[in-house]
Amino acid sequence: MNPYIFRKYDIRGIVETDFTPDVVIDLGRAFGTYVKRYGGDRVSISGDIRLTTPRLMENFSQGLLETGITVLDMGIVPTPANYFSMFHFDVDGAVQITGSHNPPEFNGFKLSYKQGAFYGDQIQALLGLIKTRNFETGDGKIEKVDIMKPYQLMLKEKIHLDKPMKAVIDCGNAAGCLTAPQIFNEVGIETTELFCDVDGTFPNHHPDPTEDHNLLDLVAEIKSGNYDFGVAYDGDADRVVAVDEKGGIIRSDILMVLFLPEVIKNPGDTIVYDVKCSQALEDMILKYGGKPVMWKTGHSLIKDKMKELDVNFAGEMSGHIFFADDFFGFDDAIYVSLRLAQLLSRTNRTLSELTSEIPVYHSTPEMRLECSDDEEKFKISKKADEYFTANYNCSTVDGVRIKFDDGWGLVRASNTQPVIVCRFEAKTLKRMEEIQNEILDKLAEFGEIALEHC
To answer: Which fold has domain 362-451?
Structure first.
């Protein structure tokens, strides 16, 4: 078994080499054992639209059953519907088989436990159980259940538009296809669909909306018609990027700003965001009387921080946005899209007019600089932490965020791939480029890192 499939937030790998039937059955045995030893006996399971998902679901379910777990088989659904199942069915654990935004040959397992994230040491505990073959045994049973109808009904009941909206949705041939078009139309959004037929080979573009080239079709359609907004989803519909009526791309850290008047109900209400987010978000949280808390990147880490601080709203620059004011605190790209439609239906201003009030900073997208392997990645990251903290004003919440009077730069090791993640931002484009060059030039001294596309 490849130990590197056990990542910080999930279990992920190349199906052909990493997820043989025996390996996946053991994963199911390990998770079932974990759930049973902490007093649980029911687990819901589902998966995304990838071609390899049905086999992985069958193998994982077999492992759960062998530990005596009752398995609720929900079939093929988006990840947020899987999260919702924890509340609707009151299960002890949940498993979503998904490759998210990774290439088609990848797949993986997002695990939840007791209506919360399952990550870090918990995932490593599964590896320990497999190594020692220390499994519970039993004769579980499997039940076929429908989560999609109650999930869609829940969304419809929570969203109320004051006037009709017109939108474009790009599902990228992925899991969003299963519910987004129907829900949009049912709540009163006239919807133009792009790539809303399921195809696990992703023939039109990769389902990763954080890459601008994957938004070209969406932007073109928005510009060709009279729309209020557009949205694009990732592979399992838990991440979203928006586009305004002029075709301007709105990343999630800026999208979060639009919701602040709704979620900051009292002075000092805390808003959590990750280290990659724009300074504009912090500025606007303070403007609306909230308390900004910068935290580590990772949907599991953000969700745990929300619970720790009793927070109603949080998000990441990567597209995960979490509402807990009138929702469940998990990342649901379709719900975020509907909240955006609801917000726009209650104002006479356009989306671009609303974002024009947000302070303008010039920033790069998230830059993922490839290293030869994880060892090289961590070597470079360690040297960067040591150098920049010794010579600059830095935040070390997650990696190192180097602070300047007029901007910042971020250097952190990815938790999922052999890459160094960077982002740069400043008040002017010229200054942003200066900060970027200053930091990247230094990184090049620390090891072998791919800078040719920067």
So the answer is: TATA-Binding Protein (3.30.310)
CB neighbour list of residue 151: distance below 8 Å, 6 or more residues apart: 77, 80, 81, 84, 88, 179
- For residue 100, indicate whether it is catalytic: yes
Q: Is 321 helix (H, G, I), strand (E, B) or coil?
A: strand
Q: Which of 12, 251, 339, 401 is catalytic?
A: 12
Express each pLDDT in 225-268 by its tens digit.
999 999 999 999 999 999 999 999 999 999 999 999 999 999 99
User: Which residue type is seen at 434?
Assistant: E
- For residues 79-101, give the mean pLDDT: 96
Torsion sign (Cα): 28, 175, 316, 406:
positive
Look up the CATH number of domain 11-148. 3.40.120.10
- Nearest C-alpha neighbor of 238 from the set 130, 108, 135: 108
The yes-or-no answer on residue 320 being catalytic is yes
Q: Which residues pair with 47 in a beta bridge?
A: 76, 97
Q: Is the pLDDT of residue 415 over 80?
A: no
Which has the closest alpha carbon to 34: 139, 127, 143?
127
The verdict on whether 414 is a catalytic residue reads no
The rounded distance, in Å, linking the Cα atoms of 90 and 233 is 27
Q: Mind listing the pLDDT tens digit for each residue in 276-303?
A: 999 999 999 999 999 999 999 999 999 9
Q: Which residue, chain included where needed, has tokens 């090891």?
A: 447
Catalytic residue among 42, 101, 320, 423: 320
Say which amino acid occupies 67: T
Q: Which of 100, 300, 337, 414 is catalytic?
A: 100
H-assigned helices in 243-332: 252-263, 279-287, 299-309
* Candidates 3.30.420.40, 3.40.120.10, 2.60.40.10, 3.40.50.300; CATH matching 165-356: 3.40.120.10
pTM of the model: 0.94
CB half-sphere exposure, 53, CA atoms < 13 A = 30
